[in-house]
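Every protein is a chain of amino acids, and every chain bends into a shape of its own. The fold becomes a row of whole numbers, each drawn from a learned catalogue of backbone shapes. The protein below has been through that process, and both of its lines are reproduced in full.
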Amino acid sequence: MTTQTYGKYTVELSHLDKILFPDDGFTKGDLVGYYDKIADAMLPHLRDRPLTLHRFPDGIDSSGFFQQSRADYFPDWLPGMAIDHGGDTGVVEHVIANNRASLVYLANQGAITLHRWLSRQAVSACPNLMIFDLDPPEGNFELVREGTEWIGQAMRDLGATPHVMTTGSKGLHVIAPLRPEASFDEVRGLAQKLADRLADQHPEKLTTEQRINKRRGRLYLDVLRNAFGQTAVAPYSVRAKPGAPVATPLDWSELGDRNLHAQRYNLGNIRQRLANKRDPWTDLHRHAVKPATLARALDRSD
């Protein structure tokens, strides 16, 4: 057992030599060190957002689990936010990670991936992000790239400022920052309307069909993450996959890189990228648009 101090917070660290990624040799110490070093870039994207943890205490070859509720044994300085999910779920106290110590503590708990809400603590009922989740049909990343360009241009035509990110899993996320002035249902409705329009414009390549057997090799425009209670992988989160890939924000110009794929960046190369490149999403929320502005633009273009 060792300890690390971050200002007024002390984090106890244990079993840092435990292998979490057997094929690559990455240890829990590597994961802890990564989240320590990435904090300056990552924390602005987590600030005040409820989280769901994807934990693998015994490494990715063992069964992991998702954890929504803040554990009773978490330190008092690691805050939570109570959200009423309704139904059988009821009230859940989600973790909030607003500082470096929180990231390090969660990594020491085997939380490899952090999934964030699309809303912040102060306005939990109103998202300030709209997201399209694009996974390749049958591994066709070129179609994901093409669909991402179409979504990005459609968002710009409506007055939004799209941002793109590798998911570290299979595909890409396209995200538009919003003013937190509309409900989850309203934002999901806007995203669905835009998705339907794009699918109508490119019927041979895009679809909004949820059933896999109905997609016929087309790219599914997934907007379901815009619903209340849904989460999306946080920027700079490690994924529990061989190679330890990292969800990485991109410049739009990088979409044309033919070496780009969903797992392009990982624990082995992400630090070098950030040492030479400013976070492309640093100014994301300066470009937030009113959902009502998007709605009017969509109506005018009908």
User: Anything to note?
Assistant: The helical segments are 28-46, 100-108, 141-158, 184-201, 270-276, 291-300. Residues 28-46 form the longest helix (19 residues). DSSP finds six helices and 16 strands in the chain.
